[in-house]
């Protein structure tokens, strides 16, 4: 169903952000400036579900382009129809198309079938939908002639993500939360609203008099994220009313450590490289063992990313396998996604990548 915020006077473009207020525009423009989220040239696909966050993001970016002249190409409203809610899903697609037309931006849509993928691959429905959704957005970006997609994750989503990862068990990178800009299997994903709260989004919609859709499935407690949102966080707030701010603050600290260790791994990598060529990197095993285990993990991740030419996250099992190879005899090997293999040879740990892999890596849910 469509929900309209109370009507407010609306000008032809969004107001310039005031540094003394706490409006969506202020937070989004600060984040865009700090991380250069919006490309100057070319187009930008904006993922729009029809919900309040994505409608606010699309409307804001239209105003941002009016004020700053970027992106210089098209803004494209990209809608992915998951087909999970029957007629409601069809109404969502029609609604987003109407919003795009009203704002004067191009509209693209794609239909996916997460239920079929769930059956085929044994993934959770949420994970299947997420992977198919990003694949659909990547196809839209290719069709629009760009490589960057903006999605509407907010500070509330960030806090929920951090808590979910803490419950499941995550390392430093996972507890750093979502990043404002991240390369994800051939696609640059930007999150301009990541420091904007849901309250600020709703205030923006009210001020702009914008209509949005309500997803009835958000009111269930079946998905893990909805359980955290509707059950767990309200209970924690009884002990700490500022739990969201606490989670975001802790995440920023983890992100700082993660960035430092990543940079340190890049600095130290030449000290242990024996051979470095396309499709092959050979590391000195004895030299690796001189570094703390946590740094070895970041060196491994750096190597795998270089070979894959994209993000390739390591699971705990992958890290354990690599550490085991370091202290094992020659001849042992371990395989990784995207055709990458690590093999223990005399005095060395050799990483190779097969050419011509059919599809890019799908990042885990921590992405």
Automatic annotation (TrEMBL):
tRNA(Ile)-lysidine synthase substrate-binding domain spans which residues?
A: 283-349
Residues of the region (Disordered) are 1-21
- List localization entries: Cytoplasm
Listed under GO biological process in this entry are: tRNA modification
Q: Where is the tRNA(Ile)-lysidine/2-thiocytidine synthase N-terminal domain?
A: 44-230
The residues that the entry says bind ATP are: 49-54
Q: Which Pfam families match?
A: ATP_bind_3 (PF01171), TilS (PF09179)
Give GO terms: molecular function aspect only: ATP binding; tRNA(Ile)-lysidine synthase activity
What is said about the domains? The N-terminal region contains the highly conserved SGGXDS motif, predicted to be a P-loop motif involved in ATP binding.
Q: What does this protein do?
A: Ligates lysine onto the cytidine present at position 34 of the AUA codon-specific tRNA(Ile) that contains the anticodon CAU, in an ATP-dependent manner. Cytidine is converted to lysidine, thus changing the amino acid specificity of the tRNA from methionine to isoleucine.
The similarity comment for this entry is:
Belongs to the tRNA(Ile)-lysidine synthase family.
Q: Under which name does UniProt file this protein? A: tRNA(Ile)-lysidine synthase
Q: Which gene encodes it?
A: tilS
